Amino acid sequence: MSTALRTLATGYVSVAVLLTVGFPLLRAALALMGRWGLPLSARQTLRAGRATLALALLLPPVCMAVRGLVPTGPLFTFERSVVRLTTRLPEPAWSPRPAAPAPRSPGTPSSFPAGTALALLLGTASAVHCARQLRQHVRLISRLESQPRLRQVGRVAVVLRDTEGTAFSTWFPRRAPHPSAWVAVPASLLEDAQGLRLTVLHELQHHRQRDTVLAYVRLALGALFFWNPVVRAFERWLATCQELACDEALVRGGKACPHDYARCLLEAALRATHAPPLPAGVTGMAHPTKRRIEMLFQPRPSRPHRTAGLVAAVALTLVPLALWAQSATRGRAVTLVEAQALAHASQREGDIPVVVDEQVVEKLNHLVTTPKGRAFMRKALDNLGTHREALTRTLHARKLPEGLLAVAMIESAVTNMPEASNLPSLAPGMRGAGVWMFIPSTARQYGLRVDAEVDERLDVARETEAAAALFSELHGRYKDWRLALAAYNQGEKKVDRVLSETGVRDASELARAGHLNDYVSTVQAGLLILRNPHLLD
Questions:
Q1: Is the CB of residue 343 less than 8 Å from the CB of residue 528?
Q2: 3-state DSSP assignment of residue 104
Q3: Is a pLDDT exceeding 70 seen at residue 116?
Q4: Own/partner pairs, 387-391, CB within 8 angstroms, 24+ separation
Q5: What pLDDT, on the 0 to 100 scale, is given for residue 120?
Q6: Going by C-beta distance under 8 Å and a sequence separation of 6 or more, which residues neighbour residue 498?
Q7: How far is the C-alpha of 404 from the C-alpha of 436, rounded, in Å?
Q8: I need a surface site. Which of 397, 429, 504, 535 has the fewest CB within 10 A?
Q9: What angle (nearest 5°) sits at the alpha carbon of residue 213, between those of residues 211 and 218?
């Protein structure tokens, strides 16, 4: 999974967790405040619900941004790195050797990208749902355009419905001078002047509260989290709160008499009984009538500090939860900033430099966060404990950097495997043998016997001598360790041709452009783990 896709998945799961926990937490807090004699008004309750929704949506990206700017500490514990155990190496000295084709190692079969497939499935389902809802909105607006208008003030139009049902209001972005806000009322209300007035006032209040605009946020949430019943319950609760807030605003603002308004609500409920459902995101009066009428005659005082205190209490709970959800989702994933800090902290003079880019971070996270990657690298570190002395003795004798051990880790997990072995390798290309995975032609070029009777590639000491000679020759040829590593895997002819055609000597840039494979990034990721084994803790 790419870094961008992993970031999106982290944000998605974090928002889902916060919504799932935030809504029950808010309802529990409101219930406790009611028991303690500190109830909130309907408008305060709506503001608290919207604030909780905003926290659930905004906290994950904020936490990810902060985490990117302030990397976590444990990843940079230099004392836990094996680099501190190595002595300073002298300047490398290489003696030219005859050019030879580079050994190639087979790559492990790529596993089915289940995470990517799931993300595509969720994205497709959400997009289809949103498209269907928006299509219904467009059709609704077209029908409203053809209805007779009672009145239009600015961009707000009041129209008569040609069918019976409940009144509703909706908003849709359109260019002037076309109306963008609509209030639709049933034609039967023309016989009831007072009911018509109160209904229009109620629906206009939805526009004043921005309910019709924020309805698209609820629509998007319903599409993205269609599988989550808590999110759907949150949507329904917010829709009810919007109706209660409108009722409260009209009655407490003196625009409606409670008795007249209660009669209007009862008649609206009767009209909505057999009416077809409204499109998602459209505000209508078909909501619990009994509770609304009771609220009209039991006004609650408004205490602004109660809303602020409630939102602050919810935020104090959701902030650590957001951090936990992000960490749990990302697992041991490392950001670009963290990987660069790791490379800088664990770099030793004379050793192979690690140039961290997005490709290196992606490979590092594959090795650190996936079960197969972690198992492979743990096996490589365990096997390195067995062969380390023999390998480093030869590298030091030729004044080569010890970081080349990462090549053996990626090629064979430091396993002395025959060519016919089914053990995995992380290196792309042809299958080889031994710790360094030499192919027969390269092994013979460097003096190793490979035939039906003897395969000296399985002699760790002799193959390491041959590998050291090859590394010395390649670095002497390219004067750059990353290009030397690329030639080790893809061959000198390939690297020479790419350098000649592009004129570029930056291995990372050549890999991003597709001229070279990802072998160099994989080795550099392995080198970061070699120097920082605590990443696998």
A1: yes
A2: coil
A3: yes
A4: 387/414, 387/416, 387/435, 387/460, 390/460, 390/461, 390/464, 391/435, 391/460, 391/464
A5: 82
A6: 510, 515, 516
A7: 10
A8: 397
A9: 75
Over the chain, what is the mean pLDDT? Answer: 84
Query: Which tokens is 401 given?
Result: 């950097």
Q: What is the pLDDT of residue 228?
A: 92
Q: Cβ neighbours of residue 322 under 8 Å, at least 6 residues apart?
A: 14, 17, 18, 59, 60, 63
Count other C-beta atoms under 10 Å from residue 423's C-beta. Answer: 12
d(CA 341, CA 72): 10
Distance CA 521, CA 527 (A): 10
- Distance (Å, rounded) from C-alpha 237 to C-alpha 240? 5
Tokens of 346: 């664990």
CA–CA gap between residue 342 and residue 150 (Å, rounded): 69
pLDDT reading at 91 higher than 70: no
- 390-408 pLDDT per residue, tens: 899 999 999 999 999 999 9
Q: How far apart are the first and last CA of the chain?
A: 21
Query: What distance lies between CA 512 and its chain's CA centroid?
Result: 22
Region 4-14: mean pLDDT is 81
Q: Where are the alpha helices (DSSP H) in 398-491?
A: 405-412, 440-445, 460-478, 481-490
Residue 366, Cβ neighbours under 10 Å: how many? 19
Contacts of 485 (CB under 8 A, 6+ apart): 407, 507, 519, 520, 523
H or E, element range at 128: helix 114-146
The label of the residue with tokens 């629509």 reads: 219
Q: Write out the DSSP string of 140-191.
A: HHHHHHHSPEEEEETTEEEEEESS-S--EEEE----TTS--EEEEEEGGGGG
Report the alpha-carbon angle 508-510-511, nearest 5: 65
Token pair 């836990």 is found at 80
Per-residue pLDDT reduced to its tens digit, 471-496: 999 999 999 999 999 999 999 999 99
Give the C-alpha separation, 229 to 191, whole Å: 42
Identity of the residue numbered 104: R
Query: Can you give the pLDDT at residue 174?
Result: 84
Which segment of 29-43, 175-189, 260-274 scores lowest on mean pLDDT?
260-274
Q: Indicate the residue type of 125.
A: A
CB 106 within 8 A of CB 371: no
Q: Report whether the peptide linkage leading into residue 177 is cis, meaning its omega lies within 30 degrees of zero.
A: yes
Q: Whole-angstrom Cα distance, residue 80 to residue 73?
A: 12
